[in-house]
Amino acid sequence: MAIPQFQEAMKPVLEFLSRNKESHTSEIRNYVASVFKTTNEEMEEMLPSKRAKLFYNRVAWAIQYLKMAELIESEKRSYYKITNAGKNYLPNSPSNITVQDLSKFEAFKLKKDSTEKSENIQEIQTLSSQTPEEMIQTGYNIILSDLSSELLKLLKSSSPYFFEFIVVDLLIKMGYGDKNDANAILTKKSGDEGVDGIIKEDKLGLEFIYVQAKRWENPVGRQEIQKFAGALQGQRAKKGVFITTSRFSNDAVEYVNKIESRIILIDGNELTKLMIEYGVGVSEKENFIIKKIDTDYFVEE
């Protein structure tokens, strides 16, 4: 069916624990999955960070919020049971328990106040269809999107020669060639028979990658790719990279898939993504580290 939001999972968690004694996290997860008919494939879906499973993460936060409201408790690692407060609340609870509902409990408010002194509960409710990790990922994606847009503007406003330099610099950062050994070169300004850059894949120059860079607004069509492919043949080259600040037309993409030469197409969106990933034209602003309890540390011998 679907992966529930963490708020949607809170009521099933409470219901399951009301009918069972102390239960392991895995048992709780399985019950929530059965309620929402979550498939095995959906249960394996990862968070964008690739560090945790999305379904597991949402159920974990449903448990955490119920625990903060003291509707459930845990006396040993990964095991939970319903409290008297939880038993009293469940019969009259709404069909879908939300963070705003939990904010009515004094225990929940105290815990929230201790970690978010200036936070508004209503503000939390607006965001809380996502778990904290998902909120961080959403915010991070927005920052990346804005950064990509700014990068693309700068690329489009740069001179053709400087744009070609950026492209070669990126490829070097990605591990192709070595700038210090002069293994990457730019051809004469504004292009050389359809080739803007040449990168040696190895120090002996046994294999070359030819680069074409177009600082365009309009889509790059098949004709331009054909010219580049012809330039590669003229150099007896097998590999090429065609990079543009715009995008490639469908017929250009289809053409590349049919020809013998290996040509990689990188459009504006992919270009800025790679620049951010490899630190070209960007610098680190802030670094956040999320920590968790080291349960092994608290195991007494």
TrEMBL record:
GO terms for biological process: DNA restriction-modification system. GO terms for molecular function: DNA binding; restriction endodeoxyribonuclease activity. Keywords: Endonuclease, Hydrolase, Nuclease. Residues 6-90 form the Restriction system protein Mrr-like N-terminal domain. The keyword Hydrolase applies. It comes from the Bacteria. Residues 156-275 form the Restriction endonuclease type IV Mrr domain. The keyword Hydrolase applies. This is Restriction endonuclease. It comes from Leptospira noumeaensis.
